Amino acid sequence: MRQKLISEGANELSYEIRGIVKKAEVLKRFDQKVIWxxxxxxxxxxxxxxxxxxEIIIDLLQENDTYGYCHSKGVAETRAYLAMMNNxxxxxxxxxxxxxxxxxLGDAISKLYQYIIPTSRVIGPSPAYSTHSSxxxxxxxxxxxxxxxxxxxxWYPDLEELYLKIKYNPNIVSILIINPDNPTGMVYPxxxxxxxxxxxxxFDLFIVSDEIYTNITYNGTVAHPLSTIIGxxxxxxxxxxxxxxxxxxxxxxxxxxxxxxxDPEFNRLCQTLDNAKMIxxxxxxxxxxxxxxxxxxxxxxxxxxxxxxxIGKRSNIITEILKPIKGLTFNQTFGAFYNTMIFKPxxxxxxxxxxxxxxxxxxxxENEWIEQDMPNDKRFVYYLLAATGICTVPISSFASDLQGxxxxxxxEDEELxxxxxxxxxxxxxxxxxx
Length: 434
Known about the structure:
Elements lengths: L15 H11 L8 E2 L14 H11 L14 H12 L11 E4 L2 H11 L5 E6 L3 H11 L5 E5 L5 E2 L1 H9 L4 E7 L11 H13 L3 E5 L24 E6 L12 E6 L5 H16 L6 H10 L4 H23 L5 E2 L8 E6 L15 H11 L6 H13 L1 E2 L1 E2 L9 E5 L5 H19 L2
Parallel strand pairs: 1-12, 3-4, 3-6, 6-7, 7-8
Antiparallel strand pairs: 2-9, 4-5, 8-9, 10-11, 11-14, 13-14
Helix pairs in contact: 2-9, 3-9, 4-5, 10-13, 11-12, 12-13
């Protein structure tokens, strides 16, 4: 071409959560069944959307207005409803104009980083959720800046490292938290959140809080929304219905602006996001119309409590099966529906293998999939996939120096859940002793 087309930041765009699917799909040629533990889709894992929720959608489809455009920022009545729900919590108060709808949080994340100038950076947790880390790195034309979540301390953030990185890097303008966290399943304790707010206040930063899993907690834990602890610090909370209802195919998420009047530059960012959505006319309307009807339904709270209890039970089952494995650093989860297992230092090496029954598949894996310089946890994930059909994601792909893998806590079929994770346990033990 006459000119270079792609920015250097494009090299930072990666999404191994979906990328591993390309490898898994190859297994179909070998009649190998795949057990999908790579992505958080409850529907894929046999979750049944309740009939009362379906009936709300059916009724909305009977209304002609459902098929038209809505306000550029989102359905006005739904935004007013969500503002009211936030304000009931106390803390930062907002109105309908402080809420902006997107076509899923992936859209919101992309837009947020797109309009921050490339020299300004957002520091986020590591292991990182790939959508955030890739978008931030792509906008900056550089590797993502991260603070460490410590697997030896319940996956809590290293606040000293966070503080020093911000202090000595004046380009950092924002702190990202994902609460509850993906990929670790950690829920930020209140005192940790308060310290992060204090750091943001000291260095004149704004906070971004991805709260897509905020109502998915269990085993006696609750997540504290950003609005309840942010005080006078500017912030953006990211929310949605894809995991909570669950309705991932709705592509419906929104952001809430807190304290936008406190800082002119932050207010300009919020206005820019509003303007960007105005150019697109509006976001998906049907799920927006459904939100108040679903959240106010008399069965909703009981439904969410039941789902959380089930996820908590699965967390306990997985803990029982995998925690005793020597060579793993294991933390039980308390929020979201993922667990991240970390291999202890130096237990992985390039000579380890799993037995792959199909000779042609074995040849494919060892001659084409496995590369000399790939991370050792990625080698394990590829062998695991080919040998057992269990599709997981390597932690090295989550902007992390740690070696491990992420699984989900979504399998509704308890017999299959036990079978999957006992097979995984046996595969880990075979791999580590090979």
